[in-house]
Amino acid sequence: MTTRPPAEIGMALEEVDTPALLIDLDAFERNLQHLANAVTGSSVRLRPHAKTHKCAVIGRRQMALGAVGVCCQKVGEAEAMVYGGVSNVLVSNEVVGVTKLKRLAALARQAQIYVCADDAGNVRDLNETALAYNVELPVLVEIDVGAHRCGVEPGEAVLALAQQIDQAPGLRFAGLQAYQGRAQHLRSFEERRQAIGQAVEQVQHTANLLSQHGLECELVSGAGSGTYAFEAGSGVYNELQAGSYIFMDVDYGKNLTADGTPWREFEHSLFVYATVMSRPNPDWAVVDAGLKALSVDSGLPMMADLPQSEYVGASDEHGKVLLHDPNSPVRLGDKLRLIPGHCDPTVNLYDWYVGLRNHRVEALWPIVARGAGR
Amino acid sequence: MTTRPPAEIGMALEEVDTPALLIDLDAFERNLQHLANAVTGSSVRLRPHAKTHKCAVIGRRQMALGAVGVCCQKVGEAEAMVYGGVSNVLVSNEVVGVTKLKRLAALARQAQIYVCADDAGNVRDLNETALAYNVELPVLVEIDVGAHRCGVEPGEAVLALAQQIDQAPGLRFAGLQAYQGRAQHLRSFEERRQAIGQAVEQVQHTANLLSQHGLECELVSGAGSGTYAFEAGSGVYNELQAGSYIFMDVDYGKNLTADGTPWREFEHSLFVYATVMSRPNPDWAVVDAGLKALSVDSGLPMMADLPQSEYVGASDEHGKVLLHDPNSPVRLGDKLRLIPGHCDPTVNLYDWYVGLRNHRVEALWPIVARGAGR
């Protein structure tokens, strides 16, 4: 159920109740501007992934800086974005089942909606629903460029599906969804470069094949925060779906640049704010942020304000922090900022962002697509 | 934000939209009855942990079967339980910070509320707030019986804190919080027995010391689903805080009994319902339940309806399932039940339970403390 906000506008940081999800607005805005600048003057457009933030306020900000629209992973996310004023959404995923197809088609009457497909039966269902709702749905074929999750094989399989879409009266063939998710967190620059190099080759080959059969790709959409520069420079991709760049998390912070140094192109701007709720021992503190306040699927959080300390274990509502300092000044009641291991599923645990500038609460943004998994 | 329910009363299981959180009501009720029966006629009472279910409907059912009240981990959970008709709550945790202390004291004017402490300064704050709200707060001292998280050391440290509580005009010393969380998932029966044996010894020693100083423990509260029988038979504990027994998860399913067989005292009654949303390859299917539909902190889910298959990887909104069967009948659009790896943080991702009996939706229970982390 929707929770009360943990803060009020104008509060000092220290007054914010915990656990709370903080945005450092200055760092966040620098991240947004940096990626916007990176594509300025090129033919590549941004379509940032809203699964990271689930917040229409942020989606509209991204569009104000030049993004052509956003991506969503679920119809429910797309509904939340459209209802919040985002006018252009690519559901970068397959939509399966009558209930969801109806919602997708109905939403396409209210905004520009793209969707992906990787199955002939699903294309038939998409077409029937589009006709029933009197919309023309633009459909991208999802192509497996190495993630080995959804998507058809490059080449002939894509052509067959694209032709089916092209011939369906309720649909329009709109291009390729070609996201190489596995490449995003390959630690070395060279590994990421190679993985995207292979993806680009497969996309290029497939786009050429489509073109030979009279099918042009309006969109070739893909890329994440970890690899966007490769897709941007590929000459093949024309949309970038990076999402995490707005926040950065511990996991992305482990990527390396070409010269082997930590990748610091974007700043950590998202924090879980936590209180020291037990200080039973000189060696450790316990904070009130555990598994229900941050997602540990990609590793544990880092302590932003106590870099020498170490968050070593999460239980449902507790985090144990080894202080590695017998004279640590950490006291019961202290509030500390944690950098989440993985931002996307962490955001999904909260109803509100608390936006801060100069240690004051400046924004309380509702996470309107929290829990919108359907 | 609160999501719409994924079902309507009377629907067939197959009509429920996905991802959804299902309860098999028959199995769930057998689990509730089994633990209620296990303590009938003894002096040990149940106080099941509501952090598992976060649902006042379930809390009231547990009390109707004899539970003396419930445990909560956060003040926000306790508020949700009290507002939903649960009249007796132990906050089995420390409550730190002015905002939360006020809410705790205000709630104690509306229901029977117990709280824990492990710090002298916090006891002073509890006392001041209780006096300000004109309530007498019963306080348990949390004792570290091997979990090495919160809690003071057994013996003299407990005595000092208990005496401070006893002398505080706004507080009443109410006993010991002695939960050995680390013992719950020790796989062998003997390991669990030994861990709880040590905890019991420490609790007994401490309770004797308190008694020698005129302080009796109204409550000695602890135990989880994995060890409850040991605490119940200890002669020292008089309340059991088991929570997960109502649902069972994959993690608890890995515990072993005394003769080395899998522990099957309780049944899996909680499922994440998912749709096959991509079937790109004979070897695997992709379901629409990933990191935002189930928590993977204690391991991946199991496929309840396809025991030979294997959920091998979760991304934000996808789960990859290896079928291990080249002739698998799994088709696009099929809906499958997954058994969560860890029930508590999985429940926290949903707003609604969909209760089923004989494959029909019989209940839609709101998860009123979803997200109530403060």
How would you describe the overall organization of this protein?
The structure is a homodimer of 374-residue chains. Chain A has 374 residues and is of the alpha/beta class. The first copy, chain A, folds into two domains: 13-20 and 264-366, Beta Barrel (Lyase, Ornithine Decarboxylase, Chain A, domain 1), CATH 2.40.37.20; 42-248, TIM Barrel (Alpha-Beta Barrel). Chain A has nine helices and 17 strands. In chain A, strand 3 (70-72), helix 3 and strand 4 form a beta-alpha-beta unit. The longest helix of chain A is centred in the middle third of the chain and has 24 residues, at 189-212. The radius of gyration of chain A is 22 Å and the shape is globular. Chain A starts with 19 loop residues before the first strand and ends in an 8-residue tail after the last strand. The interface between A and B is large, with 73 and 73 residues.
